[in-house]
Write a structure and sequence with these properties.
Largest sheet: 5 strands, antiparallel
Structural class: alpha+beta
Bound molecules: iron/sulfur cluster
Number of strands: 16
Oligomer: single chain
Helix content: 40-55%
């Protein structure tokens, strides 16, 4: 089939077993558990994680974040980015091989389904060479239907984080949500059925800049030429050299030969390690493919984990965590705005007092269930009479109340008097600056 670059050779990866394959399977299981279960776990009356875009709120493990908390989003994104840099500088493309959704879904669902319906690699190749037949056609159709089902399930899991899992899976989501599921499903299906490794090779930005994140001491999947070369020959098996069985090549989902050295296409999935280990173990020798660093390969030097680069990334991560925690501790879970009511700046009451009227808006982001009562007071206006109705809010509720402030006729007043509105609840206090307007009885501004 013609590929993205016009020269694609279809990769039919052979299945493999081994230590790293087992580790990856358990990792995939844990990641699936997190992906599918998180939107169903209630914390504080909301899903553990829910991104409510229409209301511009994010519910995360009992806390409610709004547009005013964008700084936390920035810190989280920086933390994720530097975590990726940190682990890449230490262990290469660990993310690609063990946790990237592309790898996880292909390895956990798509390749096993393909193997189950169309047989192992040699059968698939044999059938493909035979041209179009009924046997090939029905297997392809069933396989693609299965891929489509996986694509829909995976899309539903992702959209659950935005639309609410219960509503979406019970058929109570809106047309927008299901349209997004349909579009995502189409994209996933295209990826599963055709695009596959081309995504890593041509579209993934991480693959492009990983070279800048690694150095000579980064641990990567490597072929050991010192032990493996020269390849082949009658004594290769006895010597522990490469016997050119090609196992490490046919299991590679990227269609590359690890014996040609480090390649950008390698996603560090470690399938070739398990393949070579299976071969060499039977011959009584260690695997010729494994985890190592360039420094170790060239000079036998053990890689150092504490290097300027890794220490710098670690320091940045610690800094981000500390600042995030400090900001979270000082965060007050409600928002307050005070705006002057439209119309005249001030009015004179019958008793001669000056009256200013404001609109006080309070939005609750409290994580705990139950109503919270808010107290309002002002500072900076001597002898002020403050009139505001008492109100309570549930989490995520908003309330706008008139805030009337009267200053007695006897007071000496400036034209503009700055003051503060303080709104308090058991979870904290918010202060908003405002100004009181008068007719300036003393003529001052
Ligand atoms: S070369 Fe090995 S580690 Fe790299 S993608 Fe291929 S099988 Fe995975
Ligand atoms: S699996 Fe090992 S022995 Fe076989 S070709 Fe690859 S490196 Fe050589």
């Amino acid at each position: 089939m013609l590929g993205f670059a016009g020269t694609r050779e279809w990769v039919e990866a052979q299945s493999v077993t081994g230590t790293f394959t087992t580790i990856r399977r358990w990792t995939f299981f844990a990641l699936h558990l997190i992906l599918f279960a998180t939107p169903w776990i209630p914390v504080g009356g909301h899903p553990a994680i829910l991104v409510d875009l229409p209301h511009r709120q994010v519910f995360a493990f009992g806390s409610v974040f709004t547009a005013a908390d964008t700084i936390f989003l920035l810190i989280m994104l920086l933390f994720l980015a530097f975590s990726l840099f940190f682990f890449t500088s230490l262990l290469g493309r660990l993310w690609c091989g063990y946790a990237c959704p592309q790898t996880v879904f292909l390895e956990a669902w798509i390749r096993p389904i393909e193997q189950w319906i169309e047989g192992d690699r040699s059968r698939r190749l044999h059938r493909g060479r035979g041209g179009l037949s009924f046997d090939l056609a029905w297997r392809r159709v069933v396989k693609w239907l299965a891929f489509a089902l996986v694509a829909v399930v995976v899309s539903m899991a992702f959209v659950s984080y935005f639309a609410g899992a219960r509503e979406l899976w019970m058929g109570q989501g809106g047309p927008v949500e299901y349209t997004i599921v349909a579009i995502l499903s189409g994209v996933f299906f295209l990826d599963f059925a055709w695009f596959r490794e081309q995504f890593c090779n041509y579209l993934c930005p991480y693959a492009r800049f990983q070279g800048a994140l690694t150095d000579n001491e980064t641990i990567q999947v490597t072929y050991f030429p010192v032990r493996g070369e020269p390849r082949g020959g009658k004594t290769a098996a006895a010597d522990g050299r490469c016997i050119e069985c090609n196992k490490c090549v046919v299991v590679c989902p990227q269609g590359i030969d690890i014996r040609n050295g480090f390649q950008l296409e390698c996603i560090a999935c470690s399938r070739c390690i398990d393949a070579c280990h299976g071969v060499m173990e039977q011959l009584g020798h260690p695997s010729l493919v494994g985890y190592s660093s360039m420094a170790e390969m060239q000079g036998g030097k053990r890689p150092r984990f504490l290097r300027p680069r890794t220490l710098a990334y670690a320091a940045l991560l610690v800094g981000l965590v500390v600042s995030g925690v400090a900001m979270a501790r000082g965060r007050v879970p409600f928002e307050v705005t005070v705006n002057r009511t439209p119309g005249s700046l001030y009015t004179m009451d019958a008793d001669g007092a000056v009256r200013n009227t404001f609109l006080l808006k309070v939005t609750s982001n409290e994580s705990a269930p139950g109503a919270v009562t808010y107290a309002v007071r002002v500072e900076g206006l001597a002898d002020a009479e403050v009139i505001v109705p008492e109100f309570s809010l549930q989490s995520s509720e908003s309330h706008t109340a008139p805030l009337v402030i009267r200053l007695p006729a006897t007071a000496t007043l400036s034209r503009t008097i700055p003051f503060r509105v303080l709104v308090s609840a058991p979870s904290g206090e918010v202060t908003v600056e405002a100004t009181f307007k008068t007719g300036a009885s003393d003529g001052r501004e």
